[in-house]
Amino acid sequence: MEEFIVQVENISLNYRFVKSLNLKDWFINMVLRKNQGTRMKVYQALKNVTFNVKKGSVVGVIGENGAGKSTLLRVLAKVYSVDQGSVVINTDSISLLSLAAGFKSDLSGIENIYINGLLLGLSKQQIDEKLNEIIEFSEIGEFIENPIRTYSSGMRSKLAFSIACHVDPELLLIDEVFSVGDARFRKKSSARIKELIRSDRTVIMVSHSDDIIEELCDEVIWLDKGELKAIGETKKILKEYQKYSNR
Fold first, then answer.
1. CA 73 – CA 75 distance, rounded (Å)
2. For residues 73 and 61, is the Cβ–Cβ distance under 8 A?
3. 146's torsion region: left (phi>0), alpha (psi -120 to 50) or beta?
4. By the 8 A CB rule, do 222 and 68 touch?
5. C-alpha distances in angstroms, 123 versus 28, 96, 129?
6. Helix, strand or coil for residue 61?
């Protein structure tokens, strides 16, 4: 019997947000003496998605912008809760490798390493042991003592990547992080990701690069407008996806 590390059944997730009236609508409502309040909008990011992921496999998630790829990873990382369905993750060792890390801008790079490391599941002792390696990999140098608000966007991305890639989880979730920094740093970061992927861990990764997906993934989940379009062997699904995208 196959051992599944991830079991997703019929999940749906809605984003709810308030949309303010534009100037034209506001003026019309004022003239007609209608209520000039705001309107609640609902956007369905995931719709009835079902799949399983085998332990030790590398799974790619593909789809056009707005397909729900990053939302799905955040559901698996337990950042978001679903409105419908069930998500079973058969491990407590999960890490989301994403450049959307939340830094505290008034704190130093070192202080942010500890905050983000703890949020990613590392203990203080583990961060102590990895600290010099994280700093060296990030190439921030002496700026590591400065507040994050003094960093360029490139420096922030390098530090975020360096922190996340030094976590060693059983389930690794990767959200489009193959384009960090300059060409030399991208080469180094790509090699580090591939090193993580090729170890005995389960990986679910989002990438807009079909070449990277084909090189690294055993199978592919294809999302389209929040729905599961297809799932299966990498080359087969990529061929169908490319045909669909170029239609």
1. 5
2. yes
3. beta
4. no
5. 57, 16, 10
6. strand
How many CA atoms does the CB half-sphere of 128 hold within 13 Å? 3
Q: What backbone phi and psi angles, to 5 degrees, belong to 243?
A: -65, -40
* Residue type at position 162: S
CA distances from 5 to 44, 107, 170, 175, 239 (A): 26, 37, 9, 19, 27
What is the C-alpha to C-alpha distance for residues 100 and 177, in angstroms, rounded to an integer?
10
Q: Are 203 and 172 in contact (CB under 8 A)?
A: yes
Q: Specify the pairing of strand 227-233 against strand 84-89.
A: unpaired
Give the whole-angstrom CA distance, residue 79 versus residue 76. Answer: 8
Q: What is the pLDDT of residue 116?
A: 87
Residue whose pair of structure tokens reads 């995208």 in the numeric block: 245
CB 89 within 8 A of CB 10: no
SS3 (DSSP) at 245: helix
Residues 6+ apart with CB under 8 A from 53: 4, 5, 6, 59, 202, 204
Task: Give the residue carrying structure tokens 């861990």.
Answer: 201
Please compute Rg for the chain using Cα positions. Answer: 21
Closest CA to 48 of 87, 83, 11, 86: 11
For residue 149, count CB atoms less than 10 angstroms from its CB and return exposed for 0-12, middle for 13-18, buried for 19 or more. exposed
Query: Which pLDDT belongs to residue 187?
Result: 84
Residues of the chain under the 70 pLDDT cut: 1-2, 17-40, 99-101, 178-180, 247
Query: Do 42 and 207 touch, CB atoms closer than 8 A?
Result: no
Four-point Cα dihedral 111, 117, 120, 125, nearest 10: -130
